Amino acid sequence: MDFDSRRSVPSPTGASLNLYTALPGGPPRGVVQINHGLAEHAARYARFSRFLAARGFAAYAHDHRGHGFTSAPDAPQGSFGKVPAAGTVLADVAAVHDLIAAEHPGVPVIVFGHSMGSLIATSFMLRHSPRIAGAAIWNCNFSAGLLGRLAQAILAWERFRRGSDTPSRILPKLTFDAWAKEASDGRTPFDWLSRDHAEVDAYIADPLCGWDPSVGMWQAVFDFVFAGADDRNFMPVRRDLPVQMVGGGGDPESRFGKAVESLAARMRRMGFSDVTSTVYPGTRHESLNELNRDVIMADFARWAERVAPPGRDHEGRA
Hints:
This protein is of the alpha/beta class. It has helices at residues 46-54, 85-103, 116-128, 145-162, 171-174, 176-182, 197-205, 215-229, 258-269, 293-307, and strands at residues 5-10, 16-22, 30-35, 57-62, 109-114, 134-138, 243-248, 275-280. The chain has one domain (5-307): 3-Layer(aba) Sandwich (Rossmann fold), CATH 3.40.50.1820. The chain is built from ten helices and eight strands. The protein has an eight-stranded mixed beta sheet with strand order 1-2-4-3-5-6-7-8, with helices on both faces.
């Protein structure tokens, strides 16, 4: 199942962003801006995007720098580019958001993110909550704590010894390899992604998936993690912003959904009044590619329809 269109969008960062869109038959009731995960790409969200379009939502999904078919002079595959990389990634997201505003003025926008994309979507929410109608933060983990600080120290050492644009030798062992041991069907190193073997096999066969990120890219990922771990960064966000969180009870990356529930509890303690969280039993990391994806997508659609009912503006107001 394909997107309606694919095009190149210039970003102020110098990147040429590869952007896919799926549009409903008439004027959209809302737009879902999709942020994909680490070591994958936006084309993998075509099924979800067509599902959204059938329900009246436009879907915009771009390849982040260093991923897919996006190109940037300082960011080959596996690299976000020169520091400060996290800010550069967010500037690219803002460029797509500006395009959405120009093409669908006044239409509510939900920023959506899976895994690394959830870290990016959260940071975008922290900076730009007045511009969005809601945020969907899926399969996230902001609970890195001391282990996260240790990972940052390891990455600083690797950067000093080998540079920022070379793949990290140690982080994959602490993340992908560890998760593979915690959720495996004994078939492949990527069984932790999904119980659907066909989806796992498609990921493995995809040359744009499964590569080892650079030291600098990992450092930016942890910058996003610790930005979302600090309650002070949530102060500018309006407390009535609808936020939906999704996790999997079989997902080792989110500590089997515990990290998702932890963020939801934190936000409620901070006074956010419209936070929903669901951990689907048995579901592994890629909710949209899981055996129960139809249920998960239908649940998202019901939430999104509440966030963006017909006749509402970009902040969800009548």
